[in-house]
Amino acid sequence: MTSFALSAALQLSLLSAGANTYAEAHKDHSETGRPMVILVGAEWCPACVQMKNTVLPQVARRGVLQKVAFATVNADNQRSLAQKLMKGGSIPQLIMYRRSGNGWKRHLLVGKQSPERIEAFINQGLVADEPANPTVTPVSQPMAGGEAKAQANQDQSPKSGG
User: Fold this and answer.
1) CA 117, CA 59: separation in Å to the nearest integer?
2) What pLDDT does residue 41 have?
3) In the chain, which ranges are E strands?
4) Pairs from 56-61 (Cβ < 8 Å, separation ≥ 24)
5) In this predicted structure, what is the pLDDT of residue 116?
6) What domains sit in the chain, N to C, each tagged with a CATH number?
7) So what's the pLDDT on residue 129?
8) What are the Cα distances from residue 13, in Å, to 53, 62, 149?
9) Distance between CA atoms of 75 and 21, rounded to whole angstroms?
């Protein structure tokens, strides 16, 4: 019973740190300018479940997720959105969209990651000032009634397998 309570507390911690739907994170980004960070995964994927239930709550406790508009996307339940965000590849994927002076910048982590690596990924993306590819945009939300557009990403680093 104790492990169940701990698991529930960790999940609640992640939710209170800003785990929202993609539409909520997009709205948060639009209102605050904070970068969007999206975890794309699936319930059948052990690495995805570990990232969502164990690793990201650790990152949230460190206050890192409060710096971004964070969301999770289930690749099975939200297939179309997940495909547009991922642009191929395996799961889990942690994707950051950040607006810069030259447009949107997209950063990507693929595979299971440590809390330290995710924290570094987010912090690095927050301070990155390299020129962005102006054609990269996050998928617009909400998607009801029409196709949202996402354009090809030129920058897929840092990248890590797992």
Assistant:
1) 10
2) 96
3) 36-41, 69-74, 93-100, 103-110
4) 56/14, 56/19, 56/118, 57/10, 57/11, 57/13, 57/14, 57/17, 58/115, 59/115, 59/118, 59/119, 59/122, 60/13, 60/14, 60/16, 60/17, 60/18, 60/19, 61/13, 61/17
5) 96
6) 8-127 (3.40.30.10)
7) 52
8) 10, 11, 32
9) 13
102 secondary structure, DSSP code: T
Residue type, 119: E
Torsion of CA 142, 148, 153, 156, to 10 degrees: 40
Which residue has tokens 């030129």?
Answer: 154
Contact by Cβ (8 Å): 149, 139: yes
Q: Is residue 69 helix, strand or coil?
A: strand
pLDDT in tens, the chain (162 residues): 444 444 444 444 444 444 589 999 999 988 998 999 999 999 999 999 999 999 999 999 999 999 999 999 999 999 999 999 998 889 999 999 988 888 888 999 999 999 999 999 999 888 865 444 444 456 654 333 333 223 333 333 222 333
Number of CB atoms found within 10 A of residue 93's CB: 24
Placement of tokens 């002076």 in the chain: 101
Token readout for 97 is 């969209």
